[in-house]
Amino acid sequence: MNGPTTGPTTGSLRVNGATLHYEVRGQGPLLLLIPGGAGGAASLDGIADELATTYTVAAYDPRGMSRSTLDDPEAEQHVAEHADDAFRMLELLAPGEPARVLGISSGAITALHLLTTHPSRLTRVVAHEPPVVEVLPDAAEHRALVARVQETFRTQGLMPAMAVFAAGLKKDGSDTAPQPEMKLPPQAAARAEQTMANLPYFVGRIVAPFMSYAPDTARLAALTDRLVLAGGQDSRGELAYRPAAFLAERFGTELLHFPGGHTGTTTHPAEFADVLLKALIA
């Protein structure tokens, strides 16, 4: 399924409780991109174009984000259901064929669950800074952070809640919060507007269930031949970086570093894609 050189082929996929918008470009083996945070498929346009010379690159808006609509806008969200959405996407675009997956942030949590439930469908999964804070020794502290974010969102609104969230994500001992996940280049005004529109859903429906998700670490340990845990060069010490680093050490595998920080796909797309292409060779 190849799109024209002027842009991706777009489509929609009906799944349980939602309709997913997806985009496909390039040719070759399937590479599925799962965006994170409040970003949809458009947030990965920069790397998708770079990768499409080697792979059939598919990206989609996770359920409830951007152009992927929910039947019930108030429905609770679950990692397992988001992972099933990714599996349905694989089945649509490369039925029965092994595929590669890149997951970013909350999308990396989806990718980890997908790997534990459908390992035979995947040859390589790159998980970039999945905030699976439940694996950390100080998990209770991060549960308290999520609770503060939710309470602030309920009582004070979106931006105060984002300020609490950003403060909790910063480096240990740092007075400067990391680049917020919704940060996009100035020239991407339309994308920034859409990302801002997604933020209430992200804070209200995604942050808590995803950051309370505890991955099956025993299962993941048995699948390290196809799992690449990754972090940003500039993210060291930040909360989103720590779980991947912790799991890589626990599994005795190397933590792959990508250029930039948590939003390296946006700030360093060409360099990020170059590192990813090397990591995807199974």
From TrEMBL:
PANTHER family hit by this protein: AB HYDROLASE-1 DOMAIN-CONTAINING PROTEIN, HYDROLASE, ALPHA/BETA FOLD FAMILY PROTEIN
What GO molecular functions are on record for this protein? triacylglycerol lipase activity
One Pfam family, short name: Abhydrolase_1
Which source organism? Streptomyces paromomycinus (Streptomyces rimosus subsp. paromomycinus)
Q: Which residues form the signal peptide?
A: none
Ranges for domain AB hydrolase-1 come to: 29-141
Coiled-coil segments on the chain, per record: none
Keywords carried by this UniProt record? Hydrolase
- The answer to keyword Hydrolase applying to this record is yes
Q: Which GO terms describe its biological process?
A: glycerolipid catabolic process
* Protein's recorded name: Hydrolase
